[in-house]
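User: Hi! I have a protein structure encoded as tokens and I'd like to know what sequence might fold into it. I'm fairly new to this, so please keep things simple.
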């Protein structure tokens, strides 16, 4: 698998004239072409990326300052609005849609000189944990083409591990950055809710959607986050960023209080994964970390809670796709009602329909109190349990997933089994806390991920710990 230098080094070389942005883009586009069998990419942004690269090289030749990501190619998950290609969210209902503006995150990255070269595959509308729910293709795991890469940001994770670009963007609603990072051996970062603007990103569940990077190192993830983080007038849920750069990271594990999540280390966890996580814990302890066991009792209810709240928000967010304004529409419909019904029936895939039906049901009269309201009460209880845990320890730790990447098709006919893949990631989304998955070895000859969590807004501290852990656990 091809690798790139550190992102900061690439940008420094371009700014110094040692490397041409056009050469970097050409290399990235070539790698995309050479690895098509993995089906990680939905669309390639050739023309626009080449033009941007030429412009950057011309500006460098004139002595102009470009930015911290000068000439660095990157790949965006196809639910980010971008120029130069369609934005489909891997759904037939948006096939042919060209965005009238770009996502704030894309604009911020481009302002620092980054170049978007392609759009990555995903589960349609980010509904899934395997990238098998894409209406266009199934992305393959870079370590075993018979297995899934995780989801929903499976295309982004596979692209990074294959070396198609130095970094990729993903979205994490219930684990969709961290799970594919674990399954493919990448670094996947989910920031505090609201730290990165969601403007221009196709919504899934608005109260848990978060944008973050997939990279090969924690240091790269920190740099990409630092460029994207901060308030945005186009997204009222955004929060103030840390006044200190997220790239300013310590590397000392000694004295850090880390709580091992009891509920993640018991029944249902693959024994080989447990052995690897236990070995990582032992190394952190040897490095001076204070390790204790922490219990969050409501975590056992988190998955059920998530799969009530999330579909409710999905059903609301997908109501805009009705065949009237943009996207797919049924041309043979005889009246407005037929147009609505046929456009949605033909345009949405099975998983989107499933989540719309579940969400509409739990929000309906007579069932709202029994399901949705109760789930929100459990969410509040879970948030308080996280707060209590973080009053005792600085960070929390556990596996990212209870299993390694499973075979393509293995869980397609069993939605409940597929949903269980998210059991160790949804808690962080419900509580809005930052979390990261870093690779820590393998089980069954496949990558596994170690998940670290911190209190809200403690993103820099979490990245610092992850970087230190990355050095110790290699």
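Assistant: Happy to help. Inverse folding works backwards from shape to sequence: for each of the 474 positions I chose a residue that suits the local structure. Here it is:
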């Amino acid at each position: 698998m091809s690798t790139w230098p550190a992102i900061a080094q690439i940008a420094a070389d371009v700014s110094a004239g040692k490397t041409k942005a056009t050469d970097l883009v050409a290399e990235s586009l070539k790698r995309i072409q050479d690895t098509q069998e993995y089906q990680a990419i939905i669309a390639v942004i050739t023309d626009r990326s080449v033009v941007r690269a030429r412009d950057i090289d011309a500006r460098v030749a004139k002595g102009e300052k470009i930015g911290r990501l000068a000439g660095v190619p990157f790949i965006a998950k196809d639910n980010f609005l971008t120029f130069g290609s369609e934005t489909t969210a891997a759904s037939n209902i948006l096939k042919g849609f060209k965005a009238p503006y770009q996502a704030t995150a894309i604009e911020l990255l481009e302002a620092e000189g980054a170049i978007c070269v392609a759009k990555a595959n995903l589960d349609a509308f980010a509904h899934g944990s395997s990238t098998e729910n894409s209406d266009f293709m199934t992305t393959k795991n870079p370590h075993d083409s018979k297995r899934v890469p995780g989801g929903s940001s499976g295309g982004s994770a596979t692209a990074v591990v294959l070396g198609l670009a130095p970094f990729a963007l993903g979205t994490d609603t219930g684990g969709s950055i961290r799970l594919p990072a674990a399954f493919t051996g990448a670094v996947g970062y989910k920031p505090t809710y609201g730290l990165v603007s969601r403007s221009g990103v196709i919504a899934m569940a608005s109260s848990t959607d978060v944008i973050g990077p997939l990279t090969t190192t924690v240091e790269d993830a920190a740099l990409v986050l630092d460029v994207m983080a901060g308030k945005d007038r186009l997204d009222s849920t955004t929060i103030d960023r840390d006044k200190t750069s997220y790239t300013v990271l310590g590397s000392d594990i000694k004295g850090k209080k880390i709580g091992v999540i009891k509920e993640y280390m018991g029944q249902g966890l693959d024994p080989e994964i447990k052995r690897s996580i236990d070995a990582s814990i032992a190394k952190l302890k040897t490095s001076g970390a204070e390790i204790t066991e922490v219990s969050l009792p409501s975590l056992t209810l988190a998955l059920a809670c998530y799969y009530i709240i999330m579909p409710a928000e999905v059903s609301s967010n997908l109501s805009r796709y009705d065949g009237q304004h943009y996207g797919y529409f049924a041309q043979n419909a005889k009246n407005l009602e037929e147009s609505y019904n046929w456009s949605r029936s033909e345009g949405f895939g099975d998983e989107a329909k499933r989540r719309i039906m579940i969400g509409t049901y739990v929000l309906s009269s007579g069932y709202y109190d029994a399901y949705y309201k109760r789930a929100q009460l459990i969410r509040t209880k879970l948030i308080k349990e996280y707060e209590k845990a973080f009053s005792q320890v600085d960070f929390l730790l556990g596996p990212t997933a209870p299993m390694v990447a499973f075979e393509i098709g293995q869980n397609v006919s069993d939605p409940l089994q597929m949903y269980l893949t998210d059991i160790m990631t949804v808690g962080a989304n419900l509580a809005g806390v930052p979390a990261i998955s870093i690779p820590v070895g393998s089980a069954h000859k496949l990558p596994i991920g170690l998940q670290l969590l911190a209190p809200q807004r403690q993103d820099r501290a979490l990245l610092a710990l992850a970087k230190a852990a990355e050095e110790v656990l290699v």
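A useful reference point when you look it over: Residues 1-257+398-474 form a domain with the Amidase signature (AS) enzymes fold (CATH 3.90.1300.10). Feel free to ask if any position seems puzzling.
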